[in-house]
């Protein structure tokens, strides 16, 4: 597969076109950002670690019936994926209340709700990626109710699979962000990445944070936390 021109560059990844119009190459960078790009740093080897973790997770999900954009890992930093048209929405699944929700609603971090919560954020940096509801998303014209039903069904199944996967490795999946896209043949698939950049992982026994919160909150040992997730998934 031939890597061609840069299609898009985000905060943590670059996306390149290939000689196949239905395929892209995703390149993982070492850049770390937080608080809408206000806080920035380079964390050595973060891209390598996230590439491996995300590949492991997407392979696992694919084997368990989840439609995804992932095709294969090409090397330490690159993945071959199906090209999709991304819905400009982020879906945040919350199993335990933490982060922005804890602050927004003044609920102690670590509180386990009686239900699984799925938030929707509108991907618009100028507006600060605001929290919206289903009706807002449809009113914006970026998704239909039928598409939302399909996405929510996939999201809940992904949550069940990942909660079980990480539990086996002594990790609590607190919450995580997902993005979805539509392929050229019309299929809705899970896209983007699943890694410590997009998930909150806590050690099941100690509640030690093993994710990007170590960077956001200046807790130190960011790379070591990411390496720990990869080590548990591969040991």
Keywords:
235 residues; alpha+beta; 7-stranded antiparallel sheet; 5-stranded antiparallel sheet; 14 strands; globular
Structural write-up:
With 235 residues, the chain is of the alpha+beta class. Helix content is 30%, strand content 31%. The chain has six helices and 14 strands. Strand 10 and strand 11 form a beta hairpin. The protein is globular and about 50 Å long. The model has no long low-confidence stretch (mean pLDDT 97).
Query: What is the helical fraction, as a range of percent?
Result: 25-40%
- Using the CA coordinates, give the radius of gyration: 17 Å
Measured by DSSP, the beta-strand proportion falls in: 25-35%
Shape, per Cα inertia axes: globular
How many helices? The count is: 6
Oligomer: single chain
| Series of H and E elements | EEEEEHEEEEHEEHHEEEHH
- Give the mean pLDDT: 97
Task: Find the count of extended strands (DSSP E, 2+ residues).
Answer: 14
Break the fold down into its secondary structure elements and pairings:
Blueprint: E1 3-9, E2 13-18, E3 23-28, E4 31-34, E5 39-42, H1 46-63, E6 70-73, E7 78-82, E8 85-86, E9 89-94, H2 99-105, E10 117-122, E11 131-132, H3 134-139, H4 145-167, E12 171-182, E13 188-191, E14 199-203, H5 213-216, H6 222-234
Antiparallel strand pairs: 1-2, 2-3, 3-7, 4-5, 6-7, 8-12, 9-10, 9-12, 10-11, 12-13, 12-14
Helix pairs in contact: 1-6
């Amino acid at each position: 597969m031939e890597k061609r021109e840069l299609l898009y560059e985000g905060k943590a990844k670059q996306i390149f076109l290939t000689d196949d119009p239905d395929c892209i190459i995703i390149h993982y960078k070492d850049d770390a950002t937080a608080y809408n790009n206000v806080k920035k740093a380079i964390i050595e080897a973060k891209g390598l670690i996230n590439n491996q973790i995300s590949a492991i997770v997407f392979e696992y999900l694919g084997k368990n019936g989840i439609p995804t954009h992932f095709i294969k890992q090409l090397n330490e930093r690159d993945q071959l994926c199906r090209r999709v048209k991304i819905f400009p929405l982020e879906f945040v699944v919350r199993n335990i209340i933490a982060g922005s929700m804890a602050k927004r609603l003044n609920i102690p971090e670590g509180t386990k709700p009686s239900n699984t919560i799925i938030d929707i954020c509108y991907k618009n940096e100028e507006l600060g990626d605001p929290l919206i509801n289903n009706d807002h998303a449809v009113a914006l014209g970026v998704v239909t109710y039928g598409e939302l039903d399909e996405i929510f069904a996939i999201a809940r199944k992904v949550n069940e699979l990942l909660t079980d996967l990480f539990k086996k490795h002594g990790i609590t999946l607190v919450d995580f962000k997902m993005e979805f896209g539509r392929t050229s043949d019309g299929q809705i698939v899970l896209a983007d990445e699943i890694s410590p950049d997009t998930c909150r992982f806590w050690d099941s026994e100690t509640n030690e944070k093993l994710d990007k919160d170590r960077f956001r909150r200046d807790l130190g040992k960011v790379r070591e936390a990411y390496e720990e997730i990869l080590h548990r998934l591969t040991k």
